[in-house]
Amino acid sequence: xxxxxxxxxxxxxxxxxxxxxxxxxxxxxxxxxxxxxxxxxxxxxxxxxxxxxxxxxxxxxxxxxxxxxxxxxxxxxxxxxxxxxxxxxxxxxxxxxxxxxxxxxxxxxxxxxxxxxxxxxxxxxxxxxxxxxxxxxxxxxxxxxxxxxxxxxxxxxxxxxxxxxxxxxxxxxxxxxxxxxxxxxxxxxxxxxxxxxxxxxxxxxxxxxxxxxxxxxxxxxxxxxxxxxxxxxxxxxxxxxxxxxxxxxxxxxxxxxxxxxxxxxxxxxxxxx
Length: 273
Ligand code: NAD
Description:
Layout: E1 13-16, H1 22-33, E2 37-42, H2 45-57, E3 61-66, H3 72-86, E4 91-94, H4 123-150, E5 154-159, H5 175-193, E6 198-205, H6 212-215, H7 220-227, H8 242-249, E7 260-263
Parallel strand pairs: 1-2, 1-4, 2-3, 4-5, 5-6, 6-7
The protein binds nicotinamide-adenine-dinucleotide.
């Protein structure tokens, strides 16, 4: 098979969590642009509906659903509805995540710290683990259930972070173990699901300009500070995620499972430039 043909996902379907904005939206766009049907899910149902409508208007196949990744009942319902609509599920992105805030001060003082581990509000820990770790578990669990029932190969992709590999003092402490947990959970499930031809991989982004943490990476001052510490010299726009999302979703990566792909401008090589 020719190289480009291996990226073909026409006629397949994908579900993406946290897809009303940012990296999740970019995954959804990548799937739709490559010819798959996609369910855009988010707690922000207005945003999910807006983006599904936009993609439909551009001639792609998209639909929206409300989904809080913490809510297992809603998760089951949304996955079942996706299967009823598309006749199966080929690709699932466990993407929804938050920056919980609590953490250390950045070396350059770039962000207001909420105090060290003994000082901050522990609710930041609870929220972060519930959404960024348990929410990914809930998503991968449902994806495995419906993909196994479908009996076809599948691809599950979780969004981790380079903060699961190295310490990024500017990002809250609870974010680090949550993301490291996502990457390691992916390795376990890759082993478990291999016999069903379901592949499980993670993407570990560095700084991308999105709405995360209230959009602090969009601030020109913060942006300039990050541009100067990333080895490749800049923070990234979400469009840059599309080729990697398509690679992991498609047969182009059909011998890849349990992997983590860093897409961080080199930050995890040694932290700051
Ligand atoms: P974003 O805020 O633009 O998008 C996150 C989306 O998740 C939002 O639409 C939000 O409404 C949704 N969401 C929040 N809580 C949810 C819940 N409980 N259930 C369902 N949806 C929920 O942020 P983003 O940067 O695109 O983040 C996407 C993923 O990428 C996250 O897992 C994040 O940790 C990860 N990530 C981002 C960066 C970055 O620099 N932007 C770096 C590394 C990893």
